[in-house]
Structure formats: structure tokens, C-alpha cells
Design goal:
about 260 residues; 4 helices
Length: about 260
């Protein structure tokens, strides 16, 4: 199996499969492939043990169904394009050396890699942290390709070293890193600071990868332009309708006015 990542802002992952080799991805992630790639969509993939395992994976953002891509009758190739501007990282996965990844970070993996919900190390993180605190746990044996938004800033935390991060900017971290939440200090800061109420507290030892682009941040940035376009579209529709009505009235008076009794 050979892989190649092409591009910078919107990269694409291309993987060449030898006959019989299989790749696992979430349903709907494939961008293009050769004709000899066979697809098998199932809930029993990426380490899921029955329907309950698939449901837990879906809660973490991985989807209820997974698709297995297998090269049949010769070499094959398959590609996965990034969904947002960012980076695609190939990560080796070994027993006892897995990763916690943001809930939409898993792109694809070789067989033997397992995808499940990452259980929080505190009850408060799961109850009050919001969707930014719901993580995917990537474990098992093999190679996983993970997608992070924007630029990547990596930190190698020493034992006891702590980093406070906005939840949306947590891209992934080694599962040995201690993950908890803390609140913003000061009532005024929490209510009016605009940073939210909670921060992720990451404590070493272990490596963390932070992402500079979050999907909510991207949506917030383009929202004013979307509403402006919608307003312009509505105004254009009304103007067109009024213009059509006036034109129809003029034509009616020219060609049909003499027939009125």
C-alpha cells in the first residue's frame, strides 16, 4: 500500500492498493477511485462489536456505517479530498499508542485500526463541554489518515506540563495525555469575554496537535456574506417579479385593450 498527499490548502490523499488490500473509511468520504475497487458498506468495521459499537462510534462523529474499499483483480487506487482547508496527517497506530481526535478528524485507515468514542476522563467534560469535547478514539494496529483544519501547531508536553486550549482548536493528542476541562476564571471574563465558559486542559506527558481553523469559526466568518447574498437574491426576485408584472400590463394594454366591452 502506497499513499501520497497532494496539495496544500485543500489537500487530497491518494492511496494505491495492491490486490486484496483493504482500506476503511466513513461512508461518503471517497472522492474518486479506479474501476476495480470493490465497496462493502457495513456497521461491523473499524473495530465495532455489533450495533452498540457502531452506535457509540456514530455518537463520536464517525458515522453508523463504514465502507471497506478492496482492490480486486489487480492494483487499484482511491482518493479522499479534504472537506475544509487544512492538512491530512498519516499516523502510525499501535497497541497502547492510540490517539484522541476531534469528532470529524478521521478520514480513513488500514484494516486493524479501530474507531470509537473517546471516553472523557471526567464526567463534567462529557456533560458540560459541548460537541467540542466529544472526541474520536483511534486505536489498534495500522495506519490512520487524519484531517485537521487550517494550520497545525504541535506541542510535545513534558510530564506535568499543561496547556489550556479552546475546545474547537484541539485537533488531536496522544491518548496518554490527560484530558480534562476547566472554566474561564472571573465572572466578567466568562460572561463577556467571548471565549466561552470552558477550556480544555491538556496535561503531559505526550504530544498534542492543535488546529487553527474550526468549522464553527469558518461558518461564523462567512455568515454575513451568506445573509447579504440571500437578501440580494430576495430583492432581485421581487424586482424581477414587479418588472414582469409591469411589462405584462403594458403589453396587455397594447394588444388586448380594444377587446374590452
Amino acid at each position: 500500500m502506497q499513499s501520497r498527499i497532494t496539495g496544500t490548502t485543500m489537500p487530497v490523499l491518494e492511496i494505491g492498493l495492491e490486490p486484496g488490500e483493504t482500506l476503511v473509511a466513513e461512508a461518503g468520504e471517497m472522492s474518486w477511485m479506479t474501476p476495480n475497487i470493490q465497496l462493502r458498506t457495513t456497521t461491523a468495521a473499524a473495530g465495532a462489536r455489533g450495533l452498540w459499537g457502531a452506535l457509540k462510534r456514530a455518537v463520536a462523529g464517525g458515522g453508523l456505517f463504514m465502507t471497506e474499499f478492496t482492490a480486486a483483480g489487480g492494483r487499484g487506487a482511491i482518493a479522499f479530498a479534504a472537506k475544509v482547508p487544512g492538512s491530512i496527517l498519516p499516523m502510525p497506530v499501535e497497541q497502547g499508542a492510540g490517539y484522541m481526535v476531534h469528532r470529524h478528524g478521521f478520514l480513513c485507515a488500514t484494516q486493524g485500526v479501530e474507531l470509537a468514542i473517546g471516553f472523557q476522563q471526567s464526567l463534567g467534560a462529557g456533560l458540560f463541554g459541548g460537541s467540542g469535547f466529544v472526541m474520536q478514539r483511534v486505536s489498534g494496529n495500522g495506519t490512520a489518515w487524519l484531517e485537521l483544519g487550517g494550520e497545525i501547531v504541535a506541542h510535545d508536553l513534558a510530564p506535568g506540563e499543561t496547556l489550556l486550549v479552546h475546545p474547537g482548536h484541539v485537533g488531536m493528542f496522544e491518548e496518554r495525555v490527560n484530558f480534562d476541562i476547566t472554566t474561564i476564571r472571573g465572572i466578567a471574563n466568562a460572561l463577556f469575554g467571548g471565549e466561552g465558559l470552558f477550556l480544555v486542559r491538556l496535561t503531559g506527558p505526550g504530544k498534542v496537535w492543535l488546529q487553527t481553523l474550526t468549522v464553527p469559526g469558518l461558518a461564523h466568518a462567512i455568515a454575513p456574506y451568506l445573509s447579504h447574498e440571500t437578501s440580494n437574491s430576495s430583492s432581485s426576485t421581487v424586482t424581477t417579479a414587479v418588472g414582469a408584472g409591469v411589462a405584462g400590463a403594458v403589453l396587455g394594454s397594447l394588444f388586448g385593450g380594444d377587446n374590452r366591452s
